[in-house]
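Collaboration report, partner site 2.

Our partner group contributed sequences for two proteins of shared interest, and the home lab folded both. The records are reproduced in the order in which they were received, starting with the first partner submission.
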Amino acid sequence: MAALRRAAAVACVLALALGAAAQLTPTFYDGSCPRLQSIVRAGMAAAVQQEPRMGASILRLFFHDCFVQGCDASVLLDDSATLTGEKNAGPNANSLRGYEVIDAIKSQVEAACPGVVSCADILALAARDGVNLLSGPTWAVPLGRRDTRTASQAAANSNLPSPSSSAAALVSAFASKGLDARDLVALSGAHTVGSARCASFRSRVYNDTNISAGFAAKRRQICPPQGGGAADGNLAPLDALSPVRFDNGYFRNVVAQFGLLHSDQELFGGGQVDGVTAQYARNGAAFARDFAAAMVKMGNISPLTGSSGEVRANCRKPN
């Protein structure tokens, strides 16, 4: 009987989560803020024109938001006397960026329709537009999220996959968020744009054996074997073939043992996801299609809707 009650409770939680996700709709702001999508697009276009890498940075910001408490803009909250945010968690400190871009877009949105659009929805739209502006796919973003008043540095430290993760650990981390192995591989393809810090790939280029010798030697030139110095912040492109073009070059790199992070190369190392990685390396259209679908799925992780949460006036602090 106790087992049945537990199963019923789990089913109830899942139903509530699915119900919340079902409330999201691409037309949510059509009446209340009709210029929203054009404002976000213009803000992202300016940011990406100034620095193409910013498209990748905003995409990563969205991922780090959704994997901690759901897609609720918790990652945007600053530390304060009454709140410990997520910005200084291990996976985020000296690494996440783009907060000022979201602030600027939020200011434009507030000027057009004050108190209407959540920071969580602005981030979801900005991530989509960043991908598309770098020649990637586009998709209809379900909207209607609200912003949390809380954050969890502990959850950011425990829920976000590490660059040293194994394939099994990655599959498990994504499964815990309702994302399957294909979603994992597709979303990992976000690494077709952007850069990584030496501190994230040092172990890979000095210790891993499933890496192209020439590739490892080149990366060692900017990443000394000892950590703790300024070189920890030295950057290398995640996809050296086309670092500011959203395509399937990342998967071709991984198949050729040119993955920059250990976790990248784990997607093609004799495990359960090798077949999907190989498919995307051959078929860029399949990757683009599956990436768009996986982004919608990730954007549905535990959103706050209805009367839950709030619409922040300032993305950095609760109202």
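Second partner submission, folded after the first:
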Amino acid sequence: MAPKKVLLLCGDYMEDYEAMVPFQALRAYGVSVDAACPGKKAGDSCRTAVHQGIGHQTYAESRGHNFALNASFDEVNINEYDGLVIPGGRAPEYLAMDEKVLDLVRKFSDAKKPIASVCHGQLILAAAGVVQNRKCTAYPAVKPVLVAAGAKWEEADTMDKCTVDGNLVTAVAYDAHPKFISLFVKALGGSVTGSNKRILFLCGDYMEDYEVMVPFQSLQALGCHVDAICPDKGAGEKCPTAIHDFEGDQTYSEKPGHEFALTASFDNVDASSYDALVIPGGRAPEYLALNDKVISLVKGFMEKAKPVASICHGQQILSAAGVLQGRKCTAYPAVKLNVVLGGATWLEPNPIDRCFTDGNLVTGAAWPGHPEFISQLMALLGIKVSF
């Protein structure tokens, strides 16, 4: 069967995770994804927003990554696509006023093609008139609009709630991504095999925002059990993340990201019970590489030849652990010194989304490479998505 192809409907200040996680997860599974925004063309970017609750009456907003589009909205032909994904954030407020957007959504709905919408994205569904008598959930503040549009509102008892009604998949917020993406894959005719795997993420304060959440939720969406740990922290505690992006300076910029919730205690975790280890990049690896317990953990996975996937600055930890001797490895270019001094053969990440597998080791240079990074780890774990 020909590969599936879906459209991601983008706009300025869409929520950062709600755009990138499904975009890269679906591509890792072998789905072709076009990201388009009204008034913009392939190669342009959309600014994104980081939305999260930090104890106030509503969520806070800060600047996210710049999201690169790979399709031109005016050239979109619905007949080329098998499904539609609508992120939330603030973009839906103005996209819901755009007749070209509403016409596009109606065409997907009339053709009974899968539509997956999250958070505030359902404002667009309501404006398009496609939720009449349909079960639907969303971020709680969207309830009045959906009810007025004739939807059968399903209360968001938790932020990870999803609802399915025919070809329509709706979710409350990015917490729901694992189920949201899984349900969309199923709606596209996909099935997953080999997903009974346990995967451990090695986290730290100011790890890169995308580099922890995208693979974390992508693997959860496949049905894997995924845990995240950080030295000196326990389950339920959080790590602040950093948004690293290129914005015209000689090196990447850094902005505050989301706060990432850990799922297990570092001191109590039984590393032997996991099938693979993932190491995000960002600034966390600088200090994690100095932690003897971290080094011991990494050595244990490598000595047992279990899959280890490390991206960007994560290879600073691999080098400090002395596990790169004789291996082929890439990383963020500034980490080349660590890799070479660690005894590895340097593999140039050209382009920056290149990833490589050497035995049990998967390495990538930066978050644009997540689709390859995740798919290569899936291959080592024997996980397959078929359509």
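Feedback sent to the partner group on the second submission included the following. The mean pLDDT is 97. The chain is about 30% helix and 25% strand.
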